[in-house]
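Work Package 3 (structural annotation) set out to generate three-dimensional models for the target panel prioritized at the project kickoff. During this period the team completed the workflow that converts sequence records into discrete structure tokens, so that structures can be stored uniformly alongside our sequence database. As a representative example, we reproduce one entry of 281 residues exactly as it appears in the project archive.
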Amino acid sequence: MPKRPSRPPLSVVEIDSWAPTPKHRKVRRSRPAKAAPSRAVGNAASPGPVVLVTGASQGIGAAIARTFAQAIPGVRLALVARQGAKLVAVARECTALGAEARAFVGDVSIEADVARVAAEVHALWRRVDVLVNNAGSFRPGRLLETSVEAFDALVAANLRSVFLLTRAFAPAMVQHGAGDIFNMSSIAGLGPYPTSAGYCAAKFGVTGLSKVMRAEFRDHGVRVCTVYPGATLSPAWEGSGVPDERLMPAEDVARAFLDVYRLTRRTVVEEIVLRPQAGDL
């Protein structure tokens, strides 16, 4: 299991005061900042939903944050990731698009970090309306070449994080009688990839856990959707030699989340499979 960092866990970041030092790249602790002036969307009297996105500092997570910021009036975004500087940059973009965005730096595979983030989010907005369990990591490796440490790290990042975040935020959804949970699996959670044993195992686990969530939460008004994207243009593909045109844009994947969320409460999309037009890689 991953070890908790020796440094004190970082707390909610004030977007306008991020100033990493060359040596330590630390974050100054402060009270949450008010959203910077931006295009008026919604109003304080009628706030929009609270949407929490993990792995929001780059790739699909960042695209989801920007998509909701642009499309949902008054949306309040809780953005979570380990990379503070990149996360704050995304939060600033979302603020400029009209959202109220907050950056929460932490590792969602670590129970203490998730508990801290949950306490801060609940103190700020009471509950989360939309939980996007997007955080994850990929590391190729055949079964007999995968170390126990590498296997555990992949399970923690891709599966344990979903379990921890859902335990932290689903109870309030159940109590309220409404909510949306999106769990990021992969096409590697639908079929075998011989060079990705640990990743496949973790993503198949997400698939199974999501089905249990759907069965347990549907009578409480909470919708659960599992998303299975194929090859998507993101940092994971950097240096692969695969041309960008062969990969799906992250914005297309993000749009699928938004469209599913906008359906009436009488309808749930249980699964979404997205693949490049030319097929899997």
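Helices lie at 59-71, 84-96, 111-125, 148-176, 197-217, 250-261.
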